[in-house]
User: Fold this.
Amino acid sequence: MNNRVPQPVLVTGASGFIGRHLVRRLTELGNRVSCLVRATSSIDELRSAGAQLVTGDLTDCASIKRALAVSQAGIVFHLAGLIKTLRTDDFLRVNAGGVESVAAACADRTDKPVLVVVSSLAAAGPCAVGQPRVESDAPTPVSNYGRSKLAGEQAAARYAGVVPISIVRPPIVFGPSDKGMLEMFRPIARWGIHAVPGQGERCLSLIHVADLVEGLLLTAEKGERLYHNGSPGQGIYFMAAADYPTYAELGQAMAIALGKKRATVVHLPGPLVRLVGLCGDAMGRIRQRPAWVNSDKMTEALAGSWTCSSTKARTHLGWSPAAASTERLHETVQWYHHAGWL
Assistant:
């Protein structure tokens, strides 16, 4: 996209963490951006970026069709979805049903837009240490969230050949305005403690939101597309930083980013981790708001390593992170401090 004439773009999930960064970058590049938003979405930042807002429901195909008609989009970035919920059924309703609605609406257009679906490493599942996931691996999700994201990928694949579709599976995404990584930073900032779930060495892949956004733009511009009954992994990209820190190593890197010499690493036994997840579930039900720490996330935390190889994205798209993870963590901490979050 960076080398093309700016064009109309539609973004779903634009009011979310990744979506706000993507909209800002698209408008910087001169694209005319439309956003499908809920009536309850926080839209001030999108308005200030100059985006056109279309109110609708992600799971309602008519809403998507209206947004496509209004935007006349040549590219659709589908980011909307749930990462936590009080009701498991909502994962499938939104994360799979939403993709189905968007892909069906795109298929109904005379001029089919390019559709980039943002999935998750959780759809592929964990891996053994030293064996990062590649796109051709058979997916084995272990969480309700991961299974719903895989179901969304399968929904997209049903429209392959009719709509040009690519899927991007990011790992942990962090950066300015991210609340997920903030929950990992806070115990280190307050008490110098970094909790590691379970025993043994488990490794992680991460990606800074700005690097992910550039990867999404490249995928829209020249990415491989899904094909019905294509080869395993066709049309799918992992994007992550080159390093695979362990949970403990990540904690130490976060401590350094916070200006501390080191963090005290505390290994939590599996049964305690599961209990913490159950407590998070209970608190979510009491507050009627899903917690960041919950049983589904604790299942993922104990499942093994969560790493993926970005070789395909680097080779096919010419993509690579613009800065090292340590530098990106420092930038994120600076933003948290400036925003008063830490």
User: Anything to note?
Assistant: The domain at 8-174+205-243+307-322 is CATH 3.40.50.720 (Rossmann fold). The chain has a mean pLDDT of 93. The chain has two domains: 8-174+205-243+307-322, 182-202+244-302. The first strand starts at residue 8 and ends at 12.
